[in-house]
Amino acid sequence: MLITVRGEVVEIPSLADLKHSAKGVVREGWVMLKEEKTKYLPWTKKWLTLSHNSISIYKSNKSDSAQLTILLKDIEKVERSKSRTFCFRLKLKIYQSTSQALEISVSNNMDCYEWMDSISARILSNKVSGPMDPKHEIHVGIDSNGKYVGLPKEWSILLNNGSVYAKDILEKPKSTIQASNHSSEEFCHQRDYIKFGSQIKLKASIIRYSPPVFSPSAMSNEASIHDSDCTTTSSSYDVDEDQLTLALQNDKKINKRSSETSHSRSFDDLSLMDSSFCEKQQSTPSVHNKNDETSNVKLTEKQVMEILKSSIISKDPSTLFSVKHKLGQGASGSVYLAKVKADHQFYKNGLVAIKSIDFHSQSRKELLLNEITVMRESFHPNIVSFLDAFLIKERHLWVVMEYMDAGSLTDIIQRHKLNEEQVARICLETCKGIQHLHARNVIHRDIKSDNVLINKEGQIKITDFGFCARLMDRSHKRVTMVGTPYWMAPEIIKQQKYGTKVDIWSLGIMIIEMLENEPPYLGEDPMKALYMIAKTGTPSLKKPELVSKELLSFLNSCLNTDTVFRATAAELLNHSFLRRACSPKTLIPFISADVVKPRNH
Ligand SMILES: Nc1ncnc2c1ncn2[C@@H]1O[C@H](COP(=O)(O)OP(=O)(O)OP(=O)(O)O)[C@@H](O)[C@H]1O
After folding, report:
1. Are 153 and 89 contacting, i.e. CB atoms less than 8 angstroms apart?
2. Does residue 378 contact residue 401 with C-beta atoms inside 8 Å?
3. Mind telling me which PANTHER family this protein's record contains (predicted)?
């Protein structure tokens, strides 16, 4: 059905159409609704549907046409409202003769947040459109003096400021053009740009792509020394740009190849599926071949759903928990604090953290299996405990975890200067967790302060297992580029085969975060950071003279670019620096009640 919304012709599918259309209803349900301008009118019960670009209000779930449709691009803000208990407000952009806001009330807190999250996520995606009518207006050339002419002003400024990266782009265009191709095609998600004063901090940007299988550097490693964790033949990490260029070119070729034959895409995370999930799923395709990562087959959405359905509880957990407030937002979903209802003391302590994931909006659904599998199997005092998982109406996945009531290490680093004894305690506990994973041939691949959580007893635990990979054995190596750029080991960036020691590099970067508040190159964009890590190798501390010899030695053991000489987690646990660790109680003063505050949503 075509209708006119504020002068614009829009196609509004009927409710029946919506239900059957692939792009149809994202979320629907009964709500109580009120237009803000008609405060004197009572709340009315309506059927609300959210599609990818609009919200429609129906008299009932049987109605065929909507009473009101609002395009998501016309929504200015989604916010909590205090008009009723579980209520949110859609503030609309101001148009004449239109209500300025709608108040929507639902039956529980979780529902409220999920509606808000689903709407907000789609408002964002509706705001970004492709370029319109692009024109090629910039023509850069070189004049008779060898100088660039025709550069845009911003580029001239960059060059005059001596930006190595800008010069690299001009002088080595191939490598940098290929690098930027990764950023557009293969950045899986970027999240949480946080402003601190004038500096924009990229809190956590995940880059992953697949599958650089036979990079020249990786091929040369086939003949290299293969101790348990070594991945390179070279003892020097003065990576020449050509090596990086070659690796990037090679990756480009492989990506081209992979688009030609879908089977050539590697999905190495799926090796985790040799665990309990797959046992229950007889029809799961073989996902791993020890010698050839290219033979991995991607699970379809349906298969992932089948595995989830057969492995976890498909019932409504709202009888077990009452959601209190949102703790934070991750790339795959929101994390909530919830109280366990009185008669379910199976969950100790009364409070749990619930990660709520909208299954259908995940681009990499198999990573959800990763996360649950590793958490479920990894009982250890330094790994956040998995308690349960629920699948609600085949749409929402709830992962119930132990609640870490003092937030993440990032929160602490941003508020306090840690002394070396405290750094040693955090390293010791994180190392124990890493060793536990490595002993089971699991690589975490995303160790950083955001993924180290703390509780008020001063316990320190690793979380976020979405990017884990399992090695078939200690000598097995992976090649997929996964992780958060600033914390990524050079061998991952250079697409060499890598093993568990990539987590040790990331631990080293996390130590720099503890000493300097942020990882090296955080001021740079992620692509440049990758380039710098590969080019520079071991980063230098800003003020090494302020750091003790033991800590420097520990740090060097983590940040050795030659993986043969980089320590294992077990070796680090014997390092003299860790003997200086303060007692966990000494961390408690840092962990005041104000560290974790409910966010205003
Ligand atoms: N068990 C927990 N206890 C307390 N807070 C938690 C817990 N798990 C996560 N959080 C908080 O919730 C927020 C989001 O966590 P999440 O793990 O979803 O984030 P992410 O790692 O950024 O995203 P993703 O895993 O989707 O890539 C973080 O700020 C984290 O501090």
Report:
1. no
2. no
3. SERINE/THREONINE-PROTEIN KINASE SAMKA-RELATED-RELATED, SERINE_THREONINE-PROTEIN KINASE SAMKA-RELATED
Residue identified by tokens 């003892």 is: 235
Beta strand spans in 93-242 (E) = 101-105, 141-142, 148-149, 189-196, 199-209
List the alpha helices (DSSP H) in 365-419. Answer: 366-377, 409-415
What is the reported pTM?
0.63
List the domain boundaries for the chain: 19-124, 311-403, 406-600
> Is 355 known as a binding-site position?
yes
Nearest CA owner, ligand 1 atom 28: 328
H-helix or E-strand containing 348?
Answer: none
- Residue 47: other Cβ atoms inside 10 A: 20
- The number of the ligand 1 atom at minimal distance from the alpha carbon of 402 is 1
Q: Which residues make beta-bridge pairs with 57?
A: 48, 68
pLDDT digit string (tens) for 100-153? 788 999 988 888 888 988 888 888 766 655 566 666 667 777 677 767 777 776
Q: What tokens does 423 get?
A: 């750094």
Q: Are 554 and 575 in contact (CB under 8 A)?
A: yes
pLDDT tens profile 295-329: 344 677 778 788 777 777 666 787 788 888 888 88
Nearest residue to 303 via CA among 273, 258, 275, 344: 273
Query: What separation in Å is there between the alpha carbon of 597 and the centre of ligand 1?
Result: 14
Pocket around ligand 1 at a 6 A CB cut-off: 191, 204, 327-332, 335, 353, 355, 384, 401-404, 407-408, 450, 453, 463-464, 466
Find the catalytic residue in 74, 268, 411, 446.
446
Q: Active site includes 358?
A: no
Tell me which residue has its CA closest to atom 30 in ligand 1. 328
Mutate to test the pocket of ligand 1, among 355, 363, 448, 457 (most ligand atoms within 8 A of CB): 355
CA atoms within 13 A on the CB side of 538: 20
Phi and psi of 9, rounded to 5°? Answer: -80, 125
Q: Which CATH number fits domain 19-124: 3.40.630.30, 1.20.58.220, 2.30.29.30, 3.20.20.80?
A: 2.30.29.30
CATH of domain 406-600: 1.10.510.10
Phi/psi for 402 (5° steps) reads -65, 140
Same fold, 311-403 and 406-600: no
Spatial distance between the Cα atoms of 423 and 515, rounded to a whole number of angstroms: 8
Domain 311-403 sits in CATH at 3.30.200.20
